[in-house]
Amino acid sequence: MTLDTTPTATATTPVRHEALVVGASGITGSALVDHLLDLGWEVTALSRRPHPRDGVRTVAADLRDPESLRTALAGEQPTHVFFTAWQRQDTEAENIRVNGGMVRDLLAALSHAPLAHVALVTGLKHYLGPFEAYAAGEMPDTPFHEEEPRLDTPNFYYAQEDELFAAAERQGFTWSVHRSHTVIGHAVGNAMNMGLTIAVQATLAKELGLDFVFPGSEAQWNGLTDMTDAGILAEHMVWAATSPEGADEAFNVVNGDVFRWRWMWPRLAAHLGVDPARVVGFDGTARPLEEQMARYESAWAGIAERYGLTEHDITRLASWWHTDADLGRTMEVVTDMGKSREAGFTAFRRTERAFADLFDRYRADRLIP
Ligand SMILES: NC(=O)c1ccc[n+]([C@@H]2O[C@H](COP(=O)([O-])OP(=O)(O)OC[C@H]3O[C@@H](n4cnc5c(N)ncnc54)[C@H](OP(=O)(O)O)[C@@H]3O)[C@@H](O)[C@H]2O)c1
Domain PRISE-like Rossmann-fold, which positions (predicted)? Predict the structure, then answer.
C-alpha cells in the first residue's frame, strides 16, 4: 500500500496542508519539522525559544501563558497540529495541571483555525504509570496493546488525551495519539535524550580512560525491548494525520524490531569507538549514570574545547536521570505494532542502524568528537 502524505489534494484529504508543530525544537518536534519539509508542507514551528530555520515560520509563545498564546496564534490558520511539547514537573499532580493545561490552552487559542486533525505524542508511561510510580504498580502484560484500559494511577498523558478529545468534539477535527517508547533523535538542551546521553558517556569513557558500563537492570540487560526513532515517529504522526485509518485512534509507535541490551550495548560501543576491553555489561547490580558520571562532568568543557565541539555545557547534552529510569526498569518492556500495521502503516527502522546514523549526525554537528 502506498502512503500519500504529500500536500496534494485527494478525495479524503484537505487541499491545504499547513502544519503547526508545537514543541518544534524538541527531539520529536525537530524530526517532524524535517519530515514535513521533505514532504513539501507549509510549516510553522512553535516553542518558547524557536530555532530559526530555512523554509519554516517560527512562533515564539509560552504554552503556560494563555494570553501570549492567543496573541501569538491569532493570525495563524493551520490545518494540522502536531503537539510534541511537554514540561516535567516535580509531581504527577503538577504534570497533569501543567501539561494537560498546555494542550487545552493551545487548542482553545486555535478555535478560529480550520483544523482538520490534531496529533498528540505521548508514550509508554500510558501503560507503565507516571514517573513517581514508574513501572512499579499494576501494569498490563507485555507486549503493550492499545486497547488496554487506563491504569488507576493519575497520569498526565490521560489528562492530555482528555483535553484533546474534548477539543476535537467542540472544534470538529479528527485526532490521533502516538504512544512512543524511548525516543532517539537529534536535539540539544531537551529533557530526555538517550542517544546523546550514551554518546556523551562513551566520549567521557574514551577520553578519561573509563569503562563503558551499562547502567541498567538485569531485566533490561537480558530481556527483550524496543525503541522509537524520532524519524519513524514523525512518519507515523503524518500518516495518521492524513489517512482515514488514522482518524480518532490511539496507536503505539516503535521501530518494529526487538533486541536485548546485552546484544546492543557492545554494538553501540563499537559505533562510538570504545575499546571492546572497556565495555562492561550488567554485573549483578545496576550502576546508574547519575552516580557513575557525576564526578566526570566537569571534564566535558575541556573535551569540547580540545575538539572544537559546539556545546560546552554537558547538562544540555546528557539526561542521565532519564536513561537511568528507562534502562533501570525491572521488567521487560515491548510494544505491539499490530494495530498500526493493520491500519496501513508499515514503515520500520532497524534500531542499531538508527543509533549508528544518529551518532554520525552528532559527529557531523560537532556535538561529539
Ligand atoms: N524523549 C523521549 O525519550 C520520550 C519517550 C517517550 C515519550 N516521550 C513523550 O513525548 C512527548 C514529547 O517529548 P519530547 O521528548 O519530544 O520533548 P522535548 O525534546 O523535551 O521537547 C519539548 C519541546 O517543547 C517546547 N516547550 C516546552 N515547554 C514549553 C512551553 N511552556 N511553551 C512552549 N513550548 C514549550 C520546548 O521548547 P522550549 O523549551 O524552547 O519552549 C521543546 O521544543 C512528551 O509527552 C514525552 O513525555 C518522550
Answer: 78-369
**Which residue's alpha carbon is at the smallest distance from atom 18 of ligand 1?**
26
- Rounded to whole angstroms, how far apart are CA atoms 291 and 324? 10
Residue 252 CA neighbour count, 13 Å, CB half: 28
3-state helix/strand/coil string of 256-323: CCCEEHHHHHHHHHHHCCCCHHHEECCCCCCCCHHHHHHHHHHHHHHHHHHHCCCCCCHHHCCCHHHH
**Residue at 130: amino acid letter:** P
316-368 residue pLDDT tens: 999 999 999 999 999 999 999 999 999 999 999 999 999 999 999 999 999 99
**Ligand 1 neighbour 23 (Cβ under 6 A):** yes
Cβ of 121 below 6 Å from ligand 1 = yes
Contact call for residues 29 and 47 (beta carbons, < 8 A) = yes
Residue 206 annotated to the active site:
no
In short, whether 62's Cβ falls inside 6 Å of ligand 1 is yes
Q: Give the contacts of 331 (CB within 8 A, at least 6 positions apart).
A: 135, 139, 142, 219, 223
Q: What is the DSSP letter of 131?
A: G
158 is catalytic: no
Q: Quote the pLDDT of residue 361.
A: 98
Mutate to test the pocket of ligand 1, among 84, 178, 179, 323 (most ligand atoms within 8 A of CB): 84
Name the β-bridge partners of 259: 225
Buried b (16+ CB within 10 A) or exposed e, 118-130: bbbbbbbbbbbbb
Catalytic residue among 127, 157, 158, 362: 157
List the one residue out of 356, 351, 18, 23 whose CA is nearest residue 187: 23
Mean pLDDT (the chain) is 95
